[in-house]
Design brief:
It is built from five helices and two strands. By secondary structure, the protein is mostly helical. The protein has two domains: 119 residues, no CATH class; 41 residues, no CATH class. Strands 1-2 form a two-stranded antiparallel ribbon. Helix 2 packs across helix 4, helix 3 crosses helix 4 and helix 4 runs antiparallel to helix 5.
């Protein structure tokens, strides 16, 4: 195991104390609003990119940024719509937190309706739970490298809107 050898000297101790003094002063300074807003936007952009990327979205960070800036609801590729929906969902969650909106089943359905927007803009109604898939259609989360399904959700008939809100997988 590495064991560094050093000694505290008066110069080192004085320097460390000076660093600590200035560090404390900097920590007390307020962050300018424009810089705080930019840092929050960058964090939200990276969250959007990496969260959709893990689900197989092929856009890189710059393409995600451009898709959000363009904000074309009626045009663009499916991957761009996915990142815009995710961005809007994060905005909805942030606003809901600030307004202290309680998380309920209707809240979840509203959030789902934002995530599932396709094409012509945001729906105003809440999304319903998914129904049975058409024969031959499989919804799954696929590995972006191999194309193989990594997660296949249970059939809709095995899930219900119960008080617990969970799928009954014992049926």
């Amino acid at each position: 195991m590495y064991q560094p050898r050093f000694q505290y000297t008066d110069i080192i101790v004085k320097s460390l104390m000076a660093i600590e003094k200035y560090k404390s002063r900097v920590e007390m300074l307020p962050l300018p609003k424009d810089i705080e807003k930019e840092l929050r936007n960058q964090a939200k952009l990276k969250m959007t990119h990496y969260s959709t990327r893990i689900e197989g979205n092929p856009l890189d960070l710059e393409e995600v940024s451009q898709a959000i800036i363009k904000h074309r609801d009626r045009e663009g590729i499916k991957a761009e719509q996915e990142v815009r929906n995710y961005w809007n969902a994060l905005s909805f969650l942030s606003t809901s937190k600030r307004l202290k909106i309680q998380i309920t089943e209707n809240f979840i359905k509203r959030l789902h309706s934002i995530i599932e927007v396709r094409g012509s803009g945001r729906r105003n109604e809440e999304s319903e739970y998914r129904g049975p898939m058409r024969p031959g259609v499989l919804f799954a989360v696929y590995d972006s490298n191999t194309g193989q399904p990594e997660y296949i959700p249970p059939e809709s008939k095995r899930c219900s809107s119960t008080d617990e809100g969970f799928c009954n997988l014992d049926k």
